[in-house]
Amino acid sequence: MRSLLIVPLFVALVAGATLDFNHYWTAQDINNYIDELVSDFPTIASAVNVGTSTEGRPIRAVRVSKDNVANRPLVIVEAGLRAREWISPMSANYILHEIVEHYYEFENILDNVNFLVVPLVNPDGYEFSRTSNRLWLKSRSVNGNGCFGIDLNRNFGHLWNTVGGSSDPCSDSFVGTGAFSAPETAAMRDLIQGNSANLALYLSIQSADQMVLYPFSHSATTNPSNVAELRNLANSVALTLMGQNGRIFTSGGAGLLQPAASGSSIDFVAGTVQPDLVFTLETGAGGSYGYDVPESEMAEILSETTHGFLTMAEYVANNN
After folding, report:
1. Superfamily the domain 27-301+308-318 falls into
2. Residue ranges of the domains in the chain?
3. How would you class 112 by CB atoms within 10 Å of its CB: exposed for 0-12, middle for 13-18, buried for 19 or more?
4. 196: helix, strand or coil
5. Has this prediction a pTM greater than 0.90?
6. Which residues belong to the active site?
7. What is the DSSP string of 75-115?
8. Using one digit for the tens of pLDDT, what is the confidence trace for 166-223?
9. Is 267 within 8 Å of 274 (Cβ atoms)?
10. How far apart are CA 64 and CA 38, in angstroms?
């Protein structure tokens, strides 16, 4: 695996602005970057319209396929489910920066694997967190009685609303009025199901518990049938992450290492589509709450997270 840059490169956008990976981007910046990638690298990157948020913002993805070969094992990367976890969408964008802009460094992976990267599933909540309430976690659906938003990682369909969520529309862990009642999760469901035939790995990037987790979130004792394979790869990824900057990462079952909760994206994928490999990568922490990583610490965490992702991607490339 090549050594990633600790101080990321500047990215020139088509509109004349200059973005870099030392600052957090707006939702519009992310869309601009997607447009730039697919314009500059048309033989490897294409844009996918995933859906539309509650407030009408686009939810977009980038499909990465060398020479546009469709029938390869597929890795889906989902980021930005929770609004205040700004380092999550930035990590997905940095992954795209590496595997698209520096595609020639990853020939073994790109010859054998396609990617579908959704940098920002929750653009409404993300922008509200950026402009109005840094601690905001949910989407921005109108729930009534002055309450807003659904915890999107409690709204997916597998065993929805059985453990770990809240039916209170004002709660941070509000599960919604039904499975996939949020347009954001419904859009992700359709994307996942529409690409299930080749799906080999699903990765949810969240922050910032410094963990590599595999299903199931809803139970400490229920595991997929290939739990030994998941455990071994999670351990390898955690070792890779720890080898970058010395942060301690833990690996194991999501429902064991975190409070049990149903309705997560990884439980939906593992419980219904059932690809071999499903993980959550909880990034390195910083700031006052863990997820509010200062911009001065972004570069290390983005590089670190990308190394963890590449360990998974190489595993798929070498084992399918």
Report:
1. Zn peptidases (3.40.630.10)
2. 27-301+308-318
3. middle
4. helix
5. yes
6. 282
7. EEEEE--STT-THHHHHHHHHHIIIIITGGG-HHHHTT-EE
8. 999 999 999 999 999 999 999 999 999 999 999 999 999 999 999 999 999 999 999 9
9. no
10. 9
